[in-house]
C-alpha cells in the first residue's frame, strides 16, 4: 500500500506514496465502512524497510492526531417505526470549529441505517445511504462557531438503531485533506 509498485517484496529505490495519498486511501476504505489491508513489503533482511516503516508510522500518527480527541461525542439507542425520523444531537458546549464527523453503528444488531443526513446549525451538510461499522464524513468546508450538530436518520430497518459513536472533530493539523 505504501509503495508505488505492485511487487510482493520491497524493491530498492521505489517511490513511496505521500502521506496525503495514504490518508485519502484510509478515508476511502475505513471511512466508508471498509477494511484497510496494509501490505508490508519485506526487504532482504526479512524486515519492513525503514522508509516504509516510517511512512506507516506517520499514517498511524496522523490518524491518532485527527481522531483520538473529538470535540463532542455520544452514543444512543434510537427507537422508532417505519416512516419515523430519528435524530441524535451532539452535546456542544462552546462555539466549535469542525470539518468532519464519524458515525458508527453497533453492527452486532445489524446494519440498520439506510439513509441519513448530518445537520450543522440546522442546515443539511451531508447525505449518505448507510453507516455500518464506521462512516467518516469529511465536509467540503470548515464550519466555525458551530452550536449544534445532528445526525438525522430518515430511513432504517427494524424498530431501533444502535449508534455506538457519533463524534465531531476539528480540522486535522498539518494534513491536506
The CATH homologous superfamily of the largest domain corresponds to Galactose-binding domain-like
So what's the overall shape? elongated
Helix/strand order, N-terminal first: HHEEEEEEEE
Query: What is the CATH C-level name of the largest domain?
Result: Mainly Beta
Domains (count): 2
Q: Structural class per helix/strand content? A: alpha+beta
Strand content: 35-45%
CATH topology of the largest domain: Jelly Rolls
Distance between the termini: 18 Å
The second-level CATH architecture of the largest domain is Sandwich
GO molecular function: alpha-L-fucosidase activity
InterPro entries: GH, Glyco_hydro_29
GO biological process, one term: fucose metabolic process
Give a description of the structure.
The protein has two domains: 49 residues, no CATH class; 98 residues, Jelly Rolls. The protein is 16% helix and 37% strand. It contains two helices and eight strands. The longest helix has 18 residues.
